Amino acid sequence: MDLQPPSVLAQLPRPLHASTGKTHISEVYSLANAKKRKRYEVAVAVDGEAVNLYNIQNPKLVTSYAVSPKSSFSCPPCSLRRKLANGVKRQTFVAVKKDIKAFTEESGAGGTSAPVISSSTYTVDDSKSPTIFVGIVPGLDTEDENTDSFDVLAIHRDGRVRRLSPDLESQRWSQRHSAIAQGADYEVHGCFLLEFDDAKKSLLKRRPDLVSLAAGDSLISGGDDPSILLLVSYPAGAEQISLSEVRIQAFSIPAQVPGRNLDESQQMRHLMTINLPNIGGERISCDNMNWQFHCGSAGLNLSFEKGFVNFDLSQYTPATTSKFILDAEDFSSVMRISPQTVIGAGKSMIALYDTQYKSIQRSIVTEDLPSTATNSARTTFINYFAKLDLVVATKGNSLLAFDLGSSQSISGIPGKRSRDGLLIDAIGRGIGSASHWEGVSKKHRSNETAALGLDSSEDIEKWNKFSREVRQCAKNKDGHGFDRAVQAYCGTGDSQPFPSPGQYVNTETALFLISLIFSVASDGNIDKLSASSSINLSVTIWPTQTCEWLISLGLLYPGNVEAALRRAHKPRILPQLPIGTFTKALQDSDPSLQRLISVLQGPAAAFSADELSHALKIFLTLARSSVISTEEDESPKALTNGEETTELSQASPSSSTASIQTIFTGVNSCLLKLNAHPHQTTTTSLRASLTRTDLISTIHHLRLSLATGGHTTRFTETPPTPISPALTSPLLPLQTIIALLNAAVDAIGPSGWVSISPADYNTAAASSDPEEAASLRDIALIAEMKSEVSAALAGVEEASLLTGFLREYLRYAKSVDSRVLTNTTTATDEASKLPATTSTAVRHEKLNGADLLVFGAHDADADGEGGDASGKLLPLSLKADKGVSRTKVLKGTGQVVQRSKREMGYLRRKAVGKYTFERLVV
To answer: Annotated region Disordered: where (predicted)?
Structure first.
């Protein structure tokens, strides 16, 4: 499956100061009954411009709030939407330098009236530390809709937390908790607010003591549940840190604020302080660290320029559940999609990664992003909407949406995702696995050498030399040199340059050769290929002997070509080759079609029905263009929809007999391969790939094969007009003709046949209108097919009746044939030892114009009558004499031993026929 190119949701305004201005984006929540729910909207704060709200599900600008040109936002905004009885109320909170601003928008029910927008500001004067987080704490849910049931929480870099009223008119409290102040040199870099019910199910599910401590008096009084605040901090001013220096602190924020002086524990109740575990002693740069928290799994996600790490905070000691680090990569952003999947924006591509098996699931190169996005800008992921399967990101001033639902969700079930993290999806897509055909080291012979079957250092040197030679030959388009190199490496001797089909051939070697024969057509940079790119296949070089060898082994078919190219371009993931690309590549490389026909006639049975239908379409198009119509002579109507064609010998010089023969050989080869597929699959592929004209041409060709095969003509009748062998080679069996006729008729379908059968046609009009003439021919085709089918059925019935008459003779003949097959090695020796009475005489007779051959046996001392009589009698067992076996089985041990010549002669002299006939002459 492909990672589709993203869609542009909106063009964001640029910051007023392009060099220093920033854009901050966050989610939009709805609040009902003290429960927050994420909406399909994002809030965008642009320095010096405005605060805009965009809808993601139906891309549009919802609302916008202008700010001062000198405004500089210090953190992402917090936007809240509530549905009231008399309308909708939106409240958006932002931090601008030392101020906390609130934008309130109220609109009437149904949007009948213009919205009323107001703003308020709270100035921070007790702290110089910038505000890094603004959120809401749900409070007591009252019946009065005019009273806001929440408070605003603002957190500063130094760890100070302040609680403000919803209208920003007053401050509830402000403090720097003693647990935070213990680390004077620590700064807060991540803040997350959790609902108490969600925290009990994930973060605190193994800590009932902390649940009781967080709830406090609310469990007794029955008040609203508190909120859980998580703070991520690490030493200030450090350029690089180890993960063990990162400190996680959890606090409980009560829902209600009593109207009296509160102590520190009543404002913020400290729950726990923990440190993250180290990962191999690795130090991480603090510049590009980004923290996210997944509430459902209690997972704290750290993304940085080298990868992604997930920590499970629900354990007593934080544990690393997944680690995805690429030292050679430079990610601008990494975000969690599922427990085993992340999406990352690297230097040259954006891809879905499997963190469990370290594989690339889907990818798209950055050049395939919409042209409206600035090419030099890096991609930053904002949020993942699981129900929509959308990943929202920014690139420059473009707001993008990556749709993962088209490739990962279960068809027909919205919101349902297929299981990820499966080993079958990771095989062959490893991140660090380059192609093991490049060059094998002598020191590391675990994987590459095992796949290539290299057992010693001499074998490795031989392989490296061979790979360099064939690559150079492929680069120089030297087919003869390519053949010589392959013969020198794979050959078994001078008499047999290539291994025969019965001998073992390493599949990896064959795939390596195929990867050099075929190539993916691109614009010159193979790194730009991705799962969303449309690619074409081309033949780079065609070493004749090597290709014939691969065809004889049954290894040259579209599936192997695709597998070889995928392995050759690791770690890039190539998209699936379009249907028909393989046949089109062979046609473009060889207009004579000999290469395509040789591949189709090979033993490989792995051609899909769609690929064969595309090949059939190519041959039908060429056959139709090669036939030249005449006005007088009428020849068999094959592949012309019933139009008159000239004899092959009268064709123009531009359409040579060899070319016609090649085309019809390809048609019959495609039909023979198509017959190996089930009827429904064949019908579907024919309907999808061929036009109605192509299907009618196929039916005419099958009718021709039915007639020239003698299936519709009695043996006493005059044979039909001779047809050139070019139209009937290779011969199609009756079963193949019948199956493909049914498939072609079903592919047209009832509606297709009805559409060509008008209610009334007049012959005069048909002679002047080619379309009407073609329709009349199609109508006549139905009647002709009906008569031909009836004739073929009569022939089958006659053959069945004749089989009944000759059943005993056929049974005896089969036993003779089986004896001949089992004794082919000794046929010459046995023939010299047969008695003279087994020689046959042939007599020619005529019956109803048919030539008959009558076989009889000569009698050594009798006349012709005795010979005829003895020759016409069959053994009563209807089994041929098998003679004396050369081996025997010992009764005691069961050992198989050779008979001696003396014993064999004795058994021959002793042998008497199972049945004998004596003639009494009186």
So the answer is: 631-654
Complete edge-to-edge strand list for the sheet that includes strand 247-253: 186-195, 227-235, 247-253, 269-275
pLDDT of residue 52: 94
Helix (H), strand (E), coil (C) string for 438-495: CCCCCCCCCCHHHHHCCCCHHHHHHHHHHHHHHHHHHHHCCHHHHHHHHHHHHCCCCC
* Residue 645: per-residue pLDDT: 40
Mean pLDDT estimate for the chain: 79
- Asked whether residue 588 falls in the same domain as residue 642, the answer is no
Q: How many residues does the chain have?
A: 922
| Lowest-confidence segment of 25-34, 441-450, 711-720 by average pLDDT | 441-450
Q: Is the residue at 31 inside a domain?
A: yes
Domain around 100? 12-176
Whether pLDDT at 532 is above 60: no
- Asked if residue 7 lies in contact with residue 60, where contact means CB atoms within 8 angstroms, the answer is no
The rounded distance, in Å, linking the Cα atoms of 685 and 584 is: 17
Q: How many CB atoms lie within 10 A of CB 393?
A: 27
Query: Within this chain, do residues 590 and 619 fall inside the same structural domain, yes or no?
Result: no
- For the whole model, what pTM was predicted? 0.62
How many other β-carbons are positioned within 10 Å of the β-carbon of residue 132? 19
Residues 589 and 628 in one domain: no
Q: What pLDDT digit, counting tens, does each position of 500-523 carry?
A: 887 888 888 889 999 999 998 654
Question: Which tokens go with 500?
Answer: 């025969």
CA gap 182, 179 in Å, rounded: 5
Phi-psi group of 329: left, alpha or beta (phi > 0 → left; psi -120 to 50 → alpha; rest → beta): beta
CB-CB contact of 301 with 344 (8 Å): no
Q: To 5 degrees, how large is the angle CA 127–CA 129–CA 132? A: 120
CB 722 within 8 A of CB 782: no
Both 636 and 765 in a single domain? yes
